[in-house]
Protein 1
Amino acid sequence: MEQLMIELNPQTTQPVVQVKNLAKAYGSNVVLRDVSLSVAEGSVTAMIGPSGAGKSTVLRCMNLLEQPDSGEIVIDGHCINAGKKTSPKSLAALRRSAGMVFQHFNLFPHMTVLRNVSLPQERVLGCSREQANEKSMELLKRMGLADKADQYPSRCSGGQQQRIAIARALALGPRVMLFDEPTSALDPEVGVEVLEVMKELASTGMTMVVVTHEMAFAENVADELVVMADGGIIEKGHPGQILKDPQHERTRRFLRAVLER
Amino acid sequence: MEMLKAIAIGLPLTVLVTILALMIGTVVALPIVAGLRSRNRLIWLMSRGLVDLLRGIPPVVWLFMLYYGISIGAVRLSALQAGVLGLGVVAAAYLAEIFRGAISAVPKGQWEASSALGFHRATVWTRIVGPQTARAAIPAYTTFAIGLLKDSSIASTIGVSEIVFMSSQYARQSGSGILVFFVAAGIYILLSVPLGLLSRHLDVKMRKAVAR
């Protein structure tokens, strides 16, 4: 037992995601300046801030959907340095460790819900179709969508589509889930379904990074709150503390805008 | 009766020229699309130039050049070969543009989701972007195919004995003038209407399944 603890310990203290000195600019338009961030195993990090602050860009840099100009990204021990050329192999490893959920779901419209969730398992993990379908059905059940398996995504509501997208990402067994404004394209009532699933996911100990405008989620579910503005992190820490007593004037202004409307 | 017989003799060649040219066009269009999408400026420029060259010269001129102008050693292209090849490469240029447009109609999010899931490039093309491109291309592709069916009559100018060739030959021999061409026109309509129907049917069916 003691030995087990010792073996487990370094893993639990090691952050799952580490971002160091990330910077990105489009010409003279600086989107990110020197962003550093680390996400502990099993924690939920919420990123908030005005639009154009660079929240989504940080998230999209984490799995290299955007190429940062400089900086380093480590996910689950897979390191990528923006300065050096990344081999397709290490890129694949990094992306396999990170599951991504998009604002606009990005499900594959020409496949049934079940195929959407199963195909990545077959292609990326090399599962057989039976294995993949079994796992997919299990996940769809967990999302409350087992009866949608044979439908096409277009026949599902936005909230259902987003939950399918979450199932699709989870099916690959990621170490961290990245959510890019998962409820921003949804009606408030439908968004709740998605937030419920995310809460359940957080309670199972999934490491999550969530870019969001849902302040209640940030306050109640997140362990760490990151406030971004103008391409940089201006404040981070315990959500309750920041929301109650923001240190930075920019944070105060933003919170006034979102909370007191 | 003689009239119908003449047209019936021409019919298989019309269909053959159309199908072969369409096949050549489809296959040759693929590397051209790759070139048009290339980030290498030289490759892009060459592909662009090729498309503009193929499209810019009238098909009948291409056929004349291939039929009368080209001899490989002592071998000259037969009328059928020149017709199929000429119409085929011109088709490739148009189809390349159709495919290029269909590919860019696939939403960016599909590429991003594929990358985020860790699909290989080959998987993205065969399973994600390819099928969606094919669906987007169907209406324009069949429109082009119907156009090609009629343009196959250009091959009559170099002596491919397809419908129009046979019709004019019959018209000259029998002296019955314009009537045979009306019948030929009817045959073309009979050929192209089902194609259009099929295309619309496929399009509607797919739209129903995947409509957003």
Protein 2
Amino acid sequence: MSTRIRESRGQEMALTTAVAIVIVLLSLLPMLRLIKEIVAPGGTLSTVAIKAGLASPATWVATWHTLVVGIGGTLLAVLSGTLVAVLITLTDIRGRSALVLCYVMPLMIAPQVTALAWLQLFGPASPFLKLFGAAPPLGTKNPLYSTSGIILLLGVQYGPLVFLLVRAGLRKLPRELVEASRAGGAGWFTVLVTIVLPLMTPSIMAAAALAFVSCVGNFGIPAFLGIPANYLVLPTLIYQRLAGGGPAVLGETAFLSVLIGVIAMAGILAQEVMSRRRDYRISSTSLAAEPYELGRWRPAVHAGMWLLIVVVLVLPLFGLVLTSLVPGYGIALTAKTVTLDNYRFVLFEHDAASRAFFNSFWLSIAAAFFAVLVAVPIGYLIAWGKQRWVRLLNLSVELPYALPGVVLAIASLLLFLRPIPLTGIQLYNTVWIILYAYLARFLVLALRPTISGYHQIDRALEEAAQVAGAGLFTRMRTIIFPLLAPAAIAGGLLIFMTALSELTVSALLWSSGSETIGVVMFSFEQGGDSNYAAAMSVITVAVTFVLMLVTNLLAPYLPSGVLPWRD
Amino acid sequence: MARLSLDNVTKSFANFDAVNDVSIDVGDGEFLAVLGPSGCGKTTLLRLVAGFEKVTSGEIRIGSEVVSGRGGSVAPEKRRVGIVFQNYALWPHMTVAENIGYSLKVAKLNKAVARQKVEDALALVNLQGLGDRRPANLSGGQRQRVALARCLVAAPSLVLFDEPLANLDVHLRASMEDEFASFHKRTGTTIVYITHDQAEAMALADRIAVMDGGRLAQLATPRELYHEPANEMVASFISQGILLPADVLSAEQAGQCKVRVLGAELVVRCRPGERPRTGAKICCRSADLDVSPDGPGFDGLVKRVIYQGGSARIEFTPSTSPDLTLHFEQPDPVVLESGAQARLRIRSGWLIPAAGAVA
């Protein structure tokens, strides 16, 4: 009997061990390495690194800038996202799913593409403005190269993030609470201010915290808009230091990256503290409230919403396409000048660019594939596991994604600067270090939908397979994976879309030969070749669109909320 | 086919005992029903036997092998038990035939043999020709049959049913009950059947284990449970027995003794060895009551009459003890009316053994 009992535990132990190893390698190890660099540079405890960092005036300027654009971007995102969420969710507006799709779209587009698109729209060389002859004369400063420009674009980029969270909260608002208030004589505006918004405080604050973390960690927008104006935030400061000083300044940048991490965490903590001050729990569950009838305001609200979509989505993309079609900087688009040369150049002629397409595609595919495979067993332990400590897993997988990408990039550099002990394998200066960082950073994007998939599966389905004699691995393969496949694969597609034009991590980790699409796009733009950068952007946006359509095919088999753009 | 024994099995979660010191011996080929109100621990008991939960203390044996005990626990996939789940747990991504053949595939059985076995199992539950359907395209009763076929195709030594009829409508229940009974007769498998429905348990089981608050309240044949409940819980739970306070006046003689109930003396059935005592309880059934007799009995007030079609449920308060309410059924023609005075006589009953008395 004792051998049968021992056998019974084998596969479970193997699974737990494998998952633990993956988590340690991808989440705990880089974070610990980073902390070690701060408190004990060179192996002994010292405050040298911290002191040096604090003494530098550049640190303080960049920190101030980070806070300014972080808070400004967050405020703009919260205001716009909440307003749109209220209008779309609580009123009888028409074309809801189309509006959701269009409004959420900027979230699926890489920040540097957003930045590039807006720059092309308003710059002196703008083919769009030239269509009407409204472009400012060449040499004029682009109005977006400024603090307010950065704040505006951060707000545009992360407004949808706030929208999604607040909308999810609004949908759970029981209609009785609204109806009771209206029965008490309150008009729609009073209901909104006295009932709806106070009850939505937790959603709005959670959304604000998330938007804040995203804003302070964002690299693409301040890189495209801030560097030309010499307005540096912490992520771009790190980038400039590292680009100028190489591995020698790693210790200094480690301090800066921890500083970003601390600022991000402070935002999350502030949210925790604020939402604990009052009890906002909604006790009843019920149908959603009847939509408020806009009546004669309906055409105006419609027009306003679609105008917003045109401004934040259609015009920038349109400007981007126009730029990608003109042969050079400052040339107006006419029937004579229109050309596809830029596309030919980035796809076939420019070595680094075509290499970048190849690299980014296989990096994204590999990261997505790996994450789908690993998310299923990790999700199994987190969703169905009995051990309490396993729940900590969830937290440690979230960490590399919750913290700004710069933090993980620096941690990976520190981890792999020297060859891996015992094996002598060198990851630094190769494409593999980018793959490592992608695996660590994006795993959670596949894990979240997988876990919500687990919560929707009746556990009895697994137990039935168990009593039929199937061991853990057989059950995983024949029962659990097929049932979870849609959710896990949707997660994988999200990873692919995110990783394809990723810039923050690869900007710090790339080397010659291991360029990514984001990196090449960035260097084109820095070198003044906006037309090439625009052509690359249009290609990635097109790929993202197509993938979104493909992913939509999975929608009927997915838990709700997995695809952000689906209503 | 195998015996199943539970010895002093306890399962604690955090600080409450879901199953508390339960010992049950299920004979080879026996059909045992585990009956109890919700939250009594019956589902935990089933999960312990299946191996999904580990015992806190005690021992479970299937056949001669200890499967749960102090030494550890044999994994569910190694126990050779079959389970018919309450919600069937059919795998939606497989066809009916794939569902049924799953355990054979896991056991790497020869494909042709496996196909034949699946066909046989389908025939056994009258589902020939439906092997290619998906579970989603079946009716509730058909799904239940697939679940049954899936469980028996592996010829398990022990089959566990977890409230298998709870999700079916009344008509389907009766026919599935017949099906289970004939399945048991045909295969002779040892069956443990979890249910909260007494009629189901009574109709199917050789013996019934009544559970209450994690403990085994009584393990007996359906007849014995009804006529000779071992304690107040079983007496009131089974067919809503009427409990009345009584004083035992005489010692047991030929299985009967004399008691005083609500001031009237009567003779009730009892266990051997009963001695005169006070503070006892008797259990009687609606059929044991005579309404408005001329002779001896006790008076009281009819508080409420709830007509239920064919019979009425009466709430009655004896005038000698106004804080006591009796509920009983009176078949048509219902003569009592609420607010009326009436006289009741108890013809017979069962003296509930004193707590702690050994059967």
